[in-house]
Task: structure prediction
Amino acid sequence: MSRVVIVGAGAAGMMAAIAAAEQGAEVVLLEKMDQAGRKLRITGKGRCNLTNTAPIKDFITHIGPDGRWMRNCFSIMFNTQLMEFFEQRNVPLVEERGHRIYPRSGKSLDIFLALINDLEARPNVQIRKNCAVKSLTEDCHGVRLQDGSTVRGDALIIATGGLSYPTTGSTGIGYRLATDAGHKVIPQVPSLVTLTCQEDIPSELVGFVLKNVGLTITRPADNGKKVFDSFGEMTFTENGLDGPIVLSASRHVSRLLHDGETLIAHIDLKPALAPEILDRRLITDLDSNGTRLFHDALRLWLPAELVQLALDRLHIEYYKRLNKINGAERRRLLQFLKNVEFTLNGTGDYTTAVVTQGGVDTAEINPKSMESRLVPGLFFAGEVLNLDADTGGYNLQIAFSTGYAAGRAAAALA
Result:
C-alpha cells in the first residue's frame, strides 16, 4: 500500500485525499488550522458556487493564463463528474443564472460536510489538524513540521492554497515549498478583487449598485488599448469599484496595477443604446421638457445617486432650463452617459481577494497527473498552481479537478 502525504485540507486537498484513498493508498492529510476547509465554508458568500455547466471549450476560456492546460485534467474529472460526486453524497444541486451550480440548500457547509464525512469514514485516511509545515524532506516526499516531527510518504501533494483570505490559513507556504523543490513560481497578486480609484467616491454612491452597465478598462501606457470589456453589474465602495464585472476585470488588470501602471475605467450607463440613438433621445427630451431645471431633469436619464456626480463633472449651470442647453453641453451629457471615467490605481488586498493570481509554473507540471516534471513523487493541486479564473464556479472546479487527478496519480506510486 502506498502512503500519500497531503499538505492542506482545503477543496483541492480534501478531494486529493478522497481520490488517493479510493485507490487504496494510506493517506495522511495535514492541516495547519484547527479545522479543515475553512475557506471552502465561506466560498461564494457562504453559498459555494462549486462549478459551471459550460462546455469545456467555453469553460477553459475563463481560465488564465492558459486554460487549455486544464484539458487533460478535465478529462479525468469535469463538471458532470463533480456534480455526480456530490449528488452521490446526498448533496442536491441547483443551476442558477450564468450556468452556475450551487448546493440546493444554498449552504457551502453541505459541500464541506460531504467531503469531510467521506474522509472520516475511511479507515485508510488520517486527518491531522494543527500541523504547520516547516519544510520538505530531502526526497520531497514528506515534510518536517513546526513541532520538529517529520511525516514521510511515497508521494507528497502540496495543496496549500494561495494568499487570499489569510484568516482561513492561507499563508503562501506552498510557494516557498515549491521554490525549495526547484520549481519556478510566478509572483502573486490578488485576483477577483476590488479595484481602487484615484478619484474620491461621493458618499451617496458608496454601496450603490449599477445594473446592466458596460465596463471597459484601457491602458494609457499602451495608447489606450482595451484590456477588459464586459457588461453586467457593479457597485461602488468607499475607495473604488466592486461587483461581478469588476471582480472579473481584476483578473486582467491586477498585475498591471501592482506593477505601478495607471488604468482608466470607462462605465457605459446606457450600453443598449448607440451614441447616435441616445443623442436623438436627448434632443427629444430636452425639447419636451424645456422649462425644467437641469439639476432636476437629470433624473430623466440617471438614478438619483448619480446626479451629483454628473453635476460635478458636466459643469452645466445647476438652474439652467433644458431649452437653454446648447449643443456642446448636450454632447457633454451624452459623453457622460456613455463614458463615466475613473482612474484605477490599485486593488484591494488579500483579505478581500477571492483567489490568488500567480503560483507554481504549470510548464513544470504534468497536466494529467499534476506531478512535478522536476521531482518525481511531488504533486501540486489547487490555487498553489499558476491558475486562476473568472467568477462563476470555475476556480473551485480547478481545485477539485486538480486535487482529484493528483490524488489518483499519487496513489499509483508504489
About this structure: The first helix runs from residue 11 to 22. Residues 194-348 form one domain.
